[in-house]
Write a structure and sequence with these properties.
The chain is of the alpha+beta class. Among the domains are: about 55 residues, OB fold (Dihydrolipoamide Acetyltransferase, E2P); about 140 residues, OB fold (Dihydrolipoamide Acetyltransferase, E2P) (Beta Barrel). It is built from 4 helices and 14 strands. The longest helix is centred in the middle third of the chain and has 18 residues. It is globular, with a radius of gyration of 22 Å.
Length: about 280
């Protein structure tokens, strides 16, 4: 008896790009506007801007999209400090000047407190904690992908509204010890016996040490381990391997010595120690 070939589910039609005017900024920094019955969140858009948006995801009450073109920019729009900001999804507010970002976050906090019934006139306000606008991010989960068409490995954040890894030559927002060394990670992974079996690396930077956690889906060969040890020796990084869940993380190199990273807050005389798997704020 002839077997029937199962029918493929029809592909959903892609909504064509369309112009829309943004009304406000969401708490996490995306443009927000009502689109029919849905609230539409738009990466890379600011209030009062007319943008051409590409919808990337829809649910019953919300939708997500990416601003493909700024048709009428907001006077508040600034020039991103990172050359990859238009494509890379690692940052959400590079197009908003730094002081405006601080103001937005302060206003967001006010909204959240008001929603919880907290009287703002009863709140003691402290000045915001400010730092450098670049090189401040100390922790990140970076995607890894072997791209056959390019014949190389890409390491970085995902593109806006996409699962593709952004093709970047560095990240000025990451701690420079990491952001200026993405090519070394790419070269090391490309030299492995199965570069397509490394889905991600996590990086964490202390004041004195950088740690890299390598997620691998198959056991690494002796030659693969030597590649990672060579990277560790040449950079001074601590390299950890993660074959399965978080509880399987184990240090490969150096073979001994303290495993905790540290960061210091000099003005208060404090020093914090943390393991590479501990939760810490991503910013210095």
């Amino acid at each position: 008896m002839k077997q029937r070939t199962p029918k493929r589910a029809p592909r959903r039609k892609q909504t064509p790009d369309f112009p829309i005017r943004v009304t406000k900024l969401s708490h996490e920094g995306r443009g927000l506007v009502r689109w029919g019955e849905r609230m539409l969140f738009i990466d890379g858009a600011l209030p009062d801007e007319l943008v051409s948006v590409r919808v990337t995801k829809k649910s019953s009450k919300t939708a997500e999209g990416v601003a493909k073109e700024i048709l009428v920019p907001s006077p508040a729009r600034g020039q991103p400090e990172c050359p990859h900001a238009a494509v890379c999804g690692g940052c959400s507010l590079q197009h908003l000047p730094h002081q405006s970002q601080i103001n937005h976050k302060s206003n967001t906090l006010d909204e959240l407190m008001t929603r919880e019934g907290i009287a703002l006139d009863q709140v003691t306000r402290l000045p915001p904690l400010l730092g450098p606008t670049l090189g401040y991010r100390r922790r990140a989960r970076l995607g890894v992908r072997w791209v056959h068409a390019k014949g190389r490995v890409l390491v970085g954040f995902r593109e806006r509204g996409s699962n593709f890894i952004a093709d970047i030559d560095g990240c000025p927002v990451l701690d420079p010890r990491i952001g200026q060394s993405l090519d070394q990670l790419e070269t090391t992974i490309a030299a492995l016996s199965a570069p397509d079996r490394i889905p991600q690396v996590e990086v964490a930077a202390g004041d004195d040490t950088v740690a890299v956690v390598v997620r691998h889906l198959e056991p690494l060969s002796a030659a693969d381990l030597e590649q990672w040890i060579h990277l560790a020796k040449s950079t001074g990084w601590h390299v950890y391997l993660q074959p399965k869940g978080p509880d399987t993380v184990a240090r490969l190199w150096p073979a001994d010595g303290p495993e905790r990273l540290t960061y210091r807050i000099g003005e208060f005389g404090l020093e914090y120690q943390f393991a590479v798997t501990d939760f810490t704020q991503i910013n210095a």
